[in-house]
Amino acid sequence: MDLEEYQRCARTWLAANAPGARAEGATEEDGLAAAKDFMARLYDAGYSGITWPAEWGGQGLTQAEERAFATEASEVTLPTYVFSIGLGMCGPTLVDLGTPEQKTRHIKKLLRGEDIWCQLFSEPGAGSDVASLQTRAVPSDDGGWVVNGQKVWTSVAQHADYGLLLARTDVDVPKHKGLTMFIVDMHADGVTVRPLKDMTGRAHFNEIFFDDVYIAPGNVVGQVNDGWSCAVTTLLHERLSISSGVGMSGQRDNPASFDSLRKIVDTSDPLVRDGLVELHIRSRALALFNAKLSQETKAGVFPGARGSAAKLLLAELVNFQADLAVSLAGPEAVAYEGAGGLAGAIALAPAMSLGGGTNEIMRNIIGDRVLNLPPEPRVDKNVPFKDLKVGTQS
Ligand SMILES: Cc1cc2nc3c(=O)[nH]c(=O)nc-3n(C[C@H](O)[C@H](O)[C@H](O)COP(=O)(O)OP(=O)(O)OC[C@H]3O[C@@H](n4cnc5c(N)ncnc54)[C@H](O)[C@@H]3O)c2cc1C
């Protein structure tokens, strides 16, 4: 099928199947079931994992098809939020670093929405400095591992079947050298998930407790004690997928987007038009930057720290958009049920400056690795982890 025909088919399929940001359903469980049903149909129609390798369950097509589908998908909003960590971070990490057995076991189910994934990196004492994490994994006699510790801010974990876990496996070496990445079954004995409500009133993330959680052999991703380089791979995918919205959903249903705001304000006012034009320019510039990074990545050019620039630009855009919405919508911006959920979108905006790495950390990375400015001093680089005063260690 030629590209035009492919895009036409995608448009027809989306028009018939895209149900909106939240799939229909009276309860959260109904909404989840509807989202899973949508994801299965998306996969079966050939539109999930378009460029992922066919041998592991992807569609094995080219960027051209992916762009064609993304163009059509940007006109609608898909109920893919709950799958975003798996599609944007865990899945790409497994494609890059997983064993053939891990890929066979997980990729297709992830792409079909049968399994939901979460990313278990941050801890109460280790966020920006995630290499200071204290969750421990110790080997068991049968070649498996036993995990104890706590994670926090884990998005979608209340629905997750699997997580990519970063845990400490050696305390006698410097902090970046004693970490290992694991696939953990979120339904295993000893895993406790507690949802945390944010200021939107919804639970977007959770705290997780691991009490003697057994991980069977065959679930280490990459090499034992090489988890830091695996984590860097995940974080790169994370920044690109956050800034590009995983390439599947547009901003159509976002009440603070350009398209939504222009409908509720007086566009004959030149100051209003100024604000809207700036929003449009910033959004468009970021979309083009993301498209460039995505094309480069798929062509094998490593975007490196420029992924952090895209993530920083998105955080700044979302917060600019929220400020503009407040100034344009007036009292409607704080009426929680009013203006199509505008207050919810405004309340969610600050999270974008934290999740996936804070703005300050993005600036550090850009200064250090894009602009070649002197790096931050790192006094703990060669000190064994057990001798550091971090987290609850004293
Ligand atoms: C909506 C949301 C979803 C998230 N989802 C996940 C998830 O799914 N999985 C996961 O593992 N984590 C997740 N996180 C956690 C996120 O990665 C951390 O919140 C983030 O890395 C910051 O860590 P922290 O909250 O511990 O803040 P801290 O690291 O304690 O930082 C506090 C402040 O100090 C600043 N700061 C810290 N170090 C430096 C420095 N070296 N230079 C300059 N300033 C510095 C920070 O910028 C920040 O302003 C999520 C967070 C949010 C908000």
TrEMBL record:
SUPFAM superfamilies: Acyl-CoA dehydrogenase C-terminal domain-like, Acyl-CoA dehydrogenase NM domain-like. Signal peptide: none annotated. Residues 225-371 form the Acyl-CoA dehydrogenase/oxidase C-terminal domain. InterPro entries: Acyl-CoA_Oxase/DH_mid-dom (IPR006091), Acyl-CoA_Oxase/DH_mid-dom_sf (IPR046373), AcylCo_DH-like_C (IPR036250), AcylCo_DH/oxidase_C (IPR009075), AcylCoA_DH/ox_N (IPR013786), AcylCoA_DH/ox_N_sf (IPR037069), AcylCoA_DH/oxidase_NM_dom_sf (IPR009100), Mycobact_Acyl-CoA_DH (IPR052161). Gene3D superfamilies: Acyl-CoA dehydrogenase/oxidase, N-terminal domain, Butyryl-CoA Dehydrogenase, subunit A, domain 2, Butyryl-CoA Dehydrogenase, subunit A, domain 3. Its cofactor is FAD. It holds the Pfam family Acyl-CoA_dh_N. Residues 7-114 form the Acyl-CoA dehydrogenase/oxidase N-terminal domain. Residues 118-213 form the Acyl-CoA oxidase/dehydrogenase middle domain. Keywords: FAD, Flavoprotein, Oxidoreductase. Belongs to the acyl-CoA dehydrogenase family. This is Acyl-CoA dehydrogenase family protein. It comes from Sphaerisporangium flaviroseum.
